[in-house]
Design brief:
With about 140 residues, the protein is α+β, with helices and mostly antiparallel strands. The chain has a 5-stranded mixed beta sheet, sandwiched between helices. It has a single domain, classed as Aminopeptidase. The longest helix has 16 residues. The N and C termini lie far apart (about 55 Å). α3 links the parallel β4 and β5.
Length: about 140
């Protein structure tokens, strides 16, 4: 039985600097300086870019040291394509790669903004606030 046409294609890799910045801002995430993005993207442990009819409309990345610590970052889908399970496809690809290649002893973290925690809970992520740890961050450059 042949499946219906799917206009979405998830490809391993990272977007261009321009697409990275565009995808983040279109999805309501903060922008990043192009110089910083150009340095950061090649250091991605694993990433995926979601395309709609050839155009990048979503992405997600895993960063980390490759052994002890990993962080899932930059999960976003263009608003015109949200609500179709595409974020789930991105997270499934990332967690699948972690399951295949990361050591069982590795610590995998992420920051869940707003209601995104519901998506991440489906993949086994738990709230650290109910334990003895609190997620924290240190802003750079004054904001």
């Amino acid at each position: 039985m042949q499946s219906a046409y799917d206009p979405y294609e998830l490809r391993p890799g990272v977007p261009t600097v321009e697409d990275f910045r565009r995808l983040r801002t279109e999805a309501g995430l903060s922008d990043r300086a192009p110089e910083a993005v150009a340095v950061g993207l090649p250091n991605t442990w694993y990433g995926v870019v979601l395309h709609h009819e050839g155009e990048p409309i979503g992405m997600g990345r895993i960063i980390g040291d490759g052994g002890t610590a990993f962080q899932i970052v930059d999960i976003c889908v263009h608003p015109a394509h949200q609500g179709k399970g595409l974020g789930k496809r991105i997270v499934a690809a990332l967690t699948g790669e972690l399951d295949r290649r990361a050591p069982a002893s590795a610590y995998v973290s992420l920051i869940a903004d707003g209601p995104a925690h519901v998506l991440y809970e489906r993949f086994g992520f738990r709230d650290t606030a109910h334990h003895d740890s609190i997620g924290m961050y240190r802003p750079m450059g004054g904001s």
